[in-house]
């Protein structure tokens, strides 16, 4: 694959392509673009702003009133290709030296884009492979968005909810013990705002499209670290992040894809023994625990969501060919 040249550090104009994957995001995507427009210095950085719409049915990709104000390019997929595939599709349309993958439910604060671009290319010897910014919830609290790389033991323990029941023994996936108010190297930054040099993205092969949604950012950051690049959380830049904006109404589908992605990640990065442990925990332990917990809380609806997700997972298992990838 031919890699792109490094951008000209003397000018920020067109240094960055932004890729936003949209699926029925409602007004969130418009709010995302409005936030960009409110920061002219950030808009000046953008070469292309690429919206990849995954067969939305809510009209959220009808953005004609933004065409004159932003370097907007809209791709309309006839089917939902998934997040990872759509990110790769959007990235292939640009040529700028940096790429920013951003969710529709993110609203940047002024200067977040320019600060991130400067950080990525400030010191080539630092080998910065990816940068995430401080994400803030609508309530104003800083989100604990950086995470640890999963291990087979940690995923099994999380299936048993031990990270919640015994946090002193099992560290949670997200770095809850750190306030995210300082800049530091981490294992993983969230894909809601993930910036990286295009040349690095191309060298590691982009997102693994087997991950329809979830774990694709974890997998990408792990491959970056394995290739000798750093993953950085930058606290000096920030953005508002709603979180679960487009999947909140489809809890069963969300849980299914989370389980599916977990098993794919285990098959790709763990030993066969680790994969088997994750399979047993995901198929035999976690679903009944979730159903019991839901019923104990009087939520028959939640119990039905878990049952629906479990049925979807069982139906999908034969197509995943997990042990072939282990």
Q: Would you write up a description of this structure?
A:
This protein has 326 residues and is α/β, with parallel strands linked by helices. The chain has 2 domains: 16-145 and 180-241, Spore Coat Polysaccharide Biosynthesis Protein SpsA, Chain A; 251-317, no CATH class. It has helices at 28-37, 40-43, 83-91, 112-121, 152-159, 162-165, 198-203, 216-226, 251-269, 272-296, 300-320, 322-325, and strands spanning 16-22, 46-54, 72-77, 98-102, 106-108, 128-136, 184-185, 193-197, 230-241. The strands form 2 sheets. Strands 3-2-1-4-8 form a 5-stranded mixed β-sheet, with helices on both faces. Strands 5, 6, 7 and 9 form a 4-stranded mixed β-sheet that branches. Helix 10 (272-296) packs antiparallel against helix 11 (300-320). It is globular, with a radius of gyration of 20 Å. The protein starts with 15 loop residues before the first strand and ends with a helix. Mean pLDDT is 92; it is low at 1-10.
Please outline what is shown here.
With 326 residues, the chain is of the alpha/beta class. Helix content is 40%, strand content 18%.
Count every helix, treating DSSP H or I runs of 4 or more residues as helices. Answer: 12
- Major pleated sheet: 5 strands, mixed
Helix content range: 40-55%
What's the total count of β strands? 9
What fold name stands as the CATH topology of the largest domain? Answer: Spore Coat Polysaccharide Biosynthesis Protein SpsA, Chain A
Give the number of domains: 2
**CA radius of gyration:** 20 Å
Euclidean distance between termini CA atoms:
26 Å
Uncertain segments: 1-10
Q: What is the CATH class designation of the largest domain?
A: Alpha Beta
Output the CATH homologous superfamily of the largest domain: Spore Coat Polysaccharide Biosynthesis Protein SpsA, Chain A
Q: What would the principal axes of the Cα set say about the shape? A: globular
